[in-house]
Design a protein that fits this description.
heterodimer, A: 269 residues, mainly alpha, 11 helices, 0% strand, globular, B: alpha/beta, Alpha-Beta Plaits, 2 domains, 6-stranded mixed beta sheet, P-loop_NTPase (chain B)
Chain lengths: 269, 298
């Protein structure tokens, strides 16, 4: 019987592969991002998530058109209403991007096709951001359509003004929430847990700050929904940017750091 | 070529893979055989950069897997046929891989053809696939980048006997064109059908390694005759070791040597064959009994 003891490979034959047997470029980043983007829309869960979010934006502005007060009909108010919806739902889009390789074990394929996991991480961030921007665009279109209806039906014709600050602020805020979702997804690598935590933690935080006065002071710096208020209303001044930066570091930076470390080092099974 | 050198993986006290070294060469199909939980999958994950080894290294095409540029074009990997999103269609799974590898849309259809999945089947969601179909899909994905090396974990699992023979043909053809194939299995007969080289591991260690012929022929010759007592004496006199296995004599000699002894002693043989897989099978069964660890991942 031939056994390991008498036939281990102790005399290495030349292992060198013929020169140039492994040639060719790596996977361009564009293709990685494209694949990640496609993975977010090619399953029923992913696709319906997006359709539902878009539909909710339409329903919200329609409801306001029907039951709302004519004096409130401005593009900006429609948009800000939609932003409330997106702030809740965009993190979930991000979470689903962050956890996708681990919830269905597709990481076995993804990380063998691109073993440089850091590139996959960045591709997911880019893809989630693009998708987030697409949904924000839907919200803009829905809001503009609502304003058009308002103008035709109710004569609300001076509501088209949208400050550049507000527009930019809304987009930045919503993108931050997408990134927060991806960060939570990476950190927990489990869709359900990440969604629950990303919903519960800020709520607990808000309640706590309401009860404890010194926390309330800290919240000016650390509560993501509070620090983005001036951003979405177009009133960012001085300290507001510092508040935004510290809060983003807490809610996005820290989970992102933990999450990226986990994705890079975790054994893929 | 795949070169494994002293590959070791420890999880706390558990040594999942223990100092494993072997080479899978171009032109041959290497079977990685062992009971469930022997460490095959862990070793294969280390080869593909998914699991960091505790010690040792694995080189694929002369370098660590993680350093391969666009690895899908060089190494076809299938580690778990079931690790696919159940909501995607088979075609979509391949399409994603094709985009990432940078092979055209035509490669998807060519690959489906190659593994015998029809266009209709490819349009169904993976959730509705049988295990055999998932294996074919995984194989299609592994082959799509036109690689030089295949690393397949339990590819024949879930295939019917016909499917196993089909896979043998496919992998044989791949190896004949100079490709390297490493596949794992927990079924000896499966590996016997498909592989040329065998690496048998148990409890994380290599217990047998060599070509299939070597391993299968190294257990002597089984022989029956009209006068076993005389044959036993004649074989012993000729210097061959002989033992009884039930009603059969097992001689430590080739069938030709046994035949010559019988001819010289004018004994009529009623059966003469190499001991074949019985020895390997016995060893494998012992391994399975001794080392199979219930509940631990293969």
């Amino acid at each position: 019987m031939t056994t390991a003891t008498d036939r281990t490979i102790s005399t290495p034959d030349p292992y060198a592969e013929p020169e140039g047997s492994v040639r060719g470029p790596g996977v361009p980043f564009r293709r990685l991002a494209l694949v990640e983007l496609r993975k977010m829309v090619d399953t029923r869960a992913g696709l319906w998530m997006l359709i539902v979010i878009g539909a909710i934006c339409v329903v919200v502005v329609t409801a306001v058109l029907i039951w709302g007060d004519v004096s409130d009909f401005t593009l900006q108010s429609f948009l800000q209403l939609n932003a409330l919806v997106l702030v809740l739902l965009l993190p979930i889009v991000g979470i689903m991007a962050g956890t996708s390789e681990w919830s269905q074990r597709t990481g076995l394929v993804t990380f063998t096709l691109e073993p440089r996991r850091g590139r996959v991480v960045v591709a997911k961030l880019v893809a989630a951001t693009i998708l987030g921007l697409a949904l924000i665009a839907v919200a803009f279109v829905a809001s503009a359509a609502a304003q058009l209806v308002a103008q035709v039906a109710h004569g609300a014709d001076d509501g088209w003004h949208l400050g550049a600050g507000v527009g930019f602020g809304l987009v930045l805020t919503l993108v931050l929430y997408v990134l927060q979702g991806v960060a939570f997804g990476f950190a927990f690598l489990n869709t359900a847990v990440a969604i629950v935590v990303s919903l519960v933690l800020p709520t607990v935080w808000s309640v706590a700050t309401g009860l404890i006065s010194w926390l309330d002071k800290a919240a000016n710096w650390l509560d993501l929904s509070r620090v983005t208020d001036p951003l979405t209303s177009g009133h960012m001044h001085g300290d507001d940017w510092a508040h935004l930066a510290t809060s983003a570091a807490l809610w996005i930076g820290i989970p992102m750091a933990i999450g990226v470390w986990r994705v890079l080092t975790r054994e893929v099974k | 070529m795949i070169v494994i050198e002293n590959l070791t993986k420890r999880y706390g006290d558990l040594v999942a893979v223990n100092d494993v070294s072997f080479v899978a060469r171009p032109g041959s199909v290497t079977g990685f055989l062992g009971p469930n939980g022997a460490g095959k999958s862990t070793a294969m994950r280390m080869m593909t950069g998914l699991t960091p080894p505790t010690a040792g290294r694995a080189l694929v095409l002369g370098r660590p897997y993680k350093q391969l540029p666009n690895p899908g074009r060089h190494v076809g990997v299938m580690l778990d046929a079931s690790a696919q999103h159940p909501g995607r269609t088979g075609r979509e799974v391949l399409r994603l891989a094709a985009i990432q590898m940078g092979v055209g849309r035509a490669a998807v259809d060519a690959s489906l053809d190659r593994v015998g999945l029809t266009s209709k089947e490819a349009g169904r969601r993976v959730r509705n696939y049988s295990l055999g179909m998932r294996q074919r899909l995984g194989l299609a994905s592994a082959l799509m980048g036109d690689p030089q090396v295949l690393i397949l974990d339990e590819p024949a699992n879930g295939l019917d006997p016909q499917g196993i023979h089909w896979m043998r043909g496919l992998l044989r053809g791949f190896a004949d064109q100079g490709g390297t194939v490493l596949l794992s299995s927990h079924l000896l007969h499966e590996v016997q059908i498909i592989a040329d080289e065998l690496v048998m591991i148990g409890n994380g260690r290599i217990v047998a390694i060599g070509s299939k012929e070597e391993l299968l022929d190294s257990h002597g010759t089984r022989v029956r005759s009209l006068d076993d007592t005389a044959l036993h004496a004649a074989l012993s006199a000729a210097g061959f070791g002989v033992r009884h296995d039930g009603t059969v004599l097992v001689a430590e000699a080739t069938p030709e040597q046994v035949g010559r002894v019988a001819l010289d002693a004018r004994i009529v043989l009623t059966e003469l064959r190499t001991s074949g897989s019985e020895g390997l099978e016995e060893m494998f069964l012992q391994l399975t009994a001794a080392h199979a660890r219930e509940g631990s991942a293969a």
